[in-house]
Amino acid sequence: MKTTAVPTTVHCDHLITAINGAKDDLDNAIIKNKEVYDFLVSVCTKYGIGFWKPGAGIIHQIVLENYAFPGSLMIGTDSHTPNAGGFGMIAIGVGGADAVDVMTDSLWEVNWPGIIGVKLTGKLNNWTSSKDIILKLAGILTVEGGTGKIIEYFGEGTQSISCTGKGNNY
Fold it and tell me: 68-72: long-range contacts (C-beta < 8 A, 24 or more apart)?
């Protein structure tokens, strides 16, 4: 293939270790990971893949600011990919092999997800945040109960949660 079948990007934020401060840590990462960065740039250039260089930002926020929009589908290999669901899209976190299938237009299978509806009533107050809601739900469901599921929050309680609150915590 000359290019990927779907828009694709590579992000390098997880290769930076926070030790001495942003500038020093970025400079150290660029030296330490030069071979990796050079390889990724060459592959991205060859196949028309977008490249977010080291220091461009945390993928979790980049996804929300640049790619998440209602009614769309996103496949990502970052564990925080599902956060984009807070913006009204289906955002599925997958392993690398599944991502390659999508990028090469190969058959890609996903089990029909279960749907869990969570009706929110009232509003958040005092020191509570949207993170408290998901942590409570995670405690009830456990990992096994939430795997392979789409969790949809609805009801009047959703009105008191900001868009970024939904995106950063769901």
Answer: 68/167
Name residues whose C-beta falls within 8 Å of residue 84's C-beta, 6 or more positions apart in sequence. 63, 64, 67, 68, 74, 91, 167
- Alpha-carbon distance 36 to 111, whole Å? 34
39-87 tens-digit pLDDT: 999 999 999 999 999 999 888 888 888 999 999 999 998 888 888 888 8
Contact present, 89 and 70 (Cβ < 8 Å): yes
Helix (H, G, I), strand (E, B) or coil at 119: strand
The tokens for 1 are 């293939």
Which CATH code for domain 114-169?
3.40.1060.10
Mean pLDDT, residues 149-153: 86
Q: Where are the domains of the chain?
A: 1-57, 61-107, 114-169
- The answer to whether residues 49 and 102 touch, using CB atoms and an 8 Å cutoff, is no
